[in-house]
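step=encode ok
step=design start
structure_in=
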C-alpha cells in the first residue's frame, strides 16, 4: 500500500455557514470561492454568500446544494495541495465524483460548478414533488436489498431500486413514492432493522432520473474534459480511471446508476495507506470506518480540521 486516497462527499453533507472560516483563513480557499462566484454570476447564484450566510432551507435546494458542496470541497483541496499534500487515488460519493475530477485536473472549476448547478436543476425537475422517494435500509446487505426492490418493481411495474450502497449495513433505495413504500414493507419482512424515509427533494440514482441524464448530456458533451493527473475510482464501474473521455461517460451514466461506495472503499483500502475526506461533514469518514475498519480516514470539514490535519 502506498499514498493516500482523497474522498469527496456528496449531497447531504451541506451545513449553513460552510466554507466561511476556510475562506477567511486560507487565501487559496477564498480564490476558489471568488472563481465560483464569477462562473455562477449568469445564473444569479452567489455561491459564497449562500454557503456562508444562507439558511438550511436555501442550502437544501438541489441546484444550490450541489455547487456549494463542490466549491467547498475544491477549496479544501486547494489548501491541502498548496501545502504539499497530494493523493495517490481519488473518489467521490455521487456529486463528490465531480469534485474529484476537478482535483484530478479533468475539469475546470468554472465548468464544473455550472454543470453541477444544471445537474441539480435537472434532477429536481425530473420527478414532480411528492411522486418520488428515497429511504435508507438498515440491517440488510446490499444484494438482499437490491433483490427485494427488483421483486417489488416487477410486481408493481413501478421504478424502485438500490441507489446507494453506502455500507455493508446501509443501502439507500429510490423510486416512485408508492413503490418505495411497498419495498420498505417487504424489506422489513425480510429482516431489515429499520427503513428510514429520507428528506430529499428527488429520487436520485434510479431510472426516474433518465430525463435529467438526457438534459445534462449535451452540456457534458460540450464541456472540455482532460485526461486525469490522478486516477479517480468511478461510482459506476469501481475502477481507477485516468481518461477524460471515460470520466465524461461515467458522469453521464452515474445519474441513473447506483453509487457503489462499499466496493469503492474496499478497493481504496487495499490500494492506499489511508484517506482524507476532503469537504464538508464527516459522512464518508463514518462509512469508511464501517466498511474497512483498519483503514484510517481523517476529516477536513472546516478550517480547524484542516489546521489539525496539516499540523499532523
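sequence_out=
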Amino acid at each position: 500500500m502506498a499514498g493516500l486516497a482523497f474522498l469527496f462527499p456528496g449531497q447531504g453533507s451541506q451545513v449553513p455557514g460552510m466554507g466561511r472560516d476556510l475562506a477567511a483563513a486560507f487565501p487559496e480557499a477564498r480564490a476558489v470561492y471568488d472563481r465560483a462566484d464569477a462562473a455562477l454570476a449568469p445564473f444569479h447564484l452567489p455561491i459564497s454568500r449562500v454557503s456562508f450566510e444562507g439558511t438550511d432551507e436555501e442550502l437544501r435546494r438541489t441546484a444550490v446544494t450541489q455547487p456549494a458542496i463542490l466549491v467547498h470541497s475544491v477549496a479544501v483541496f486547494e489548501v491541502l495541495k498548496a501545502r504539499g499534500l497530494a493523493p495517490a487515488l481519488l473518489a467521490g460519493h455521487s456529486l463528490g465524483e465531480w469534485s474529484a475530477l476537478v482535483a484530478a485536473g479533468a475539469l475546470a472549476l468554472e465548468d464544473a460548478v455550472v454543470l453541477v448547478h444544471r445537474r441539480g436543476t435537472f434532477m429536481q425537475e425530473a420527478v414532480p414533488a411528492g411522486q418520488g422517494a428515497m429511504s435508507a435500509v438498515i440491517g440488510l446487505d446490499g444484494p438482499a436489498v437490491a433483490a427485494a426492490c427488483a421483486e417489488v418493481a416487477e410486481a408493481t411495474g413501478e421504478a424502485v431500486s438500490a441507489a446507494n450502497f453506502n455500507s455493508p449495513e446501509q443501502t439507500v433505495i429510490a423510486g416512485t413514492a408508492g413503490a418505495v413504500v411497498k419495498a420498505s414493507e417487504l424489506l422489513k419482512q425480510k429482516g431489515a432493522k429499520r427503513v428510514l424515509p429520507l428528506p430529499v427533494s428527488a429520487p436520485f440514482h434510479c431510472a426516474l432520473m433518465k430525463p435529467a441524464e438526457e438534459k445534462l448530456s449535451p452540456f457534458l458533451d460540450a464541456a472540455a474534459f482532460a485526461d486525469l493527473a490522478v486516477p479517480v475510482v468511478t461510482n459506476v464501474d469501481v475502477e481507477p480511471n485516468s481518461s477524460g473521455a471515460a470520466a465524461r461517460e461515467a458522469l453521464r451514466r452515474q445519474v441513473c446508476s447506483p453509487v457503489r461506495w462499499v466496493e469503492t472503499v474496499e478497493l481504496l483500502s487495499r490500494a492506499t495507506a489511508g484517506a482524507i475526506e476532503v469537504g464538508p461533514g464527516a459522512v464518508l469518514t463514518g462509512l469508511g470506518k464501517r466498511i474497512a475498519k483498519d483503514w484510517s480516514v481523517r476529516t477536513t470539514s472546516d478550517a480547524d480540521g484542516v489546521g489539525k490535519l496539516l499540523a499532523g
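step=design ok
step=annotate ok -> The longest helix spans residues 62-82.
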